[in-house]
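Dear Dr. L.,

I hope this message finds you well. Following up on our conversation about the binding site, I have prepared a predicted three-dimensional model of the protein together with NAP. For your records, I am including the exact sequence and ligand specification that went into the calculation, followed by the structure tokens. Please feel free to forward this to your student if that is useful.
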Amino acid sequence: MSQERIAIIGGTGDLGFGLALRWAGAGVPIVIGSRDAQRAQDASDRVKATINAAAAQVSVGGFENAEAAAQASIVVLAVPFPAQVAILKSIRHSLKDAILVDTTVPLAATLGGKPTRTVGVWQGSAAEQARELVPQRVPVLAAFHSLSADALQNLSTSLDCDILVCGDDPAAKEKLFPLVKLIPGLRPLDAGPLEMARIVEPLTALLISINRRYKVHHAGLRVTGLPTGA
Ligand SMILES: NC(=O)c1ccc[n+]([C@@H]2O[C@H](COP(=O)([O-])OP(=O)(O)OC[C@H]3O[C@@H](n4cnc5c(N)ncnc54)[C@H](OP(=O)(O)O)[C@@H]3O)[C@@H](O)[C@H]2O)c1
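The resulting structure of the complex is given below.
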């Protein structure tokens, strides 16, 4: 079993629930966070039932967001862009020695616009907005933007995607990379500093456009030309 405990804020939703399923299935202790403790508990029960947690001997629980964040060494934020600020304000004092992994894409669709567009964020990206909202001692990484929640949630689907990780703290990346590798089909790649999230976040809008054209839900990204073992 993994030594890290991952809290997934918004773990009742598409991306968060999919990550919870895959990580719990790989033996990583998971805490699902929600604005509503009962909803978190229900999602946790669904994860346990799906992966047969008793057999897998993995701990999965569900709590209100701040309580969930307080229990974890890695806190994944998986909420819609318009909710990002309020949710971060509600959990920021609960982030003890944790790393924050922000998955937020500022999709225009979340504000009534097109799903194939993003909106401008004053700080440059949603991840840099997150950086401003949590204490400086908390390392912030941006990741998982190009991963299909639909594919994650369907356990019969083999994943096939690079996870571009942006952030300014090498030690935090070193902690996240093995956890990404625990999910078969995912390869973590160091995409550089947090400000690279300005480029990575809009790639989701590109993938949505590609999904529409090819009538699929699982388009992902692979980077070629890297050394073997990257
Ligand atoms: N879906 C994907 O394929 C995908 C892929 C890559 C990145 N992302 C990014 O990951 C984040 C989560 O995406 P998602 O598709 O999982 O989102 P979602 O299912 O719409 O929402 C995730 C969770 O956010 C919580 N939430 C908190 N405040 C909210 C509010 N004001 N309105 C609605 N929900 C709120 C809800 O949990 P409670 O109600 O239980 O609090 C909800 O279950 C987004 O920023 C998205 O851009 C998504």
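In brief: The radius of gyration is 16 Å.

With kind regards,
A. P.
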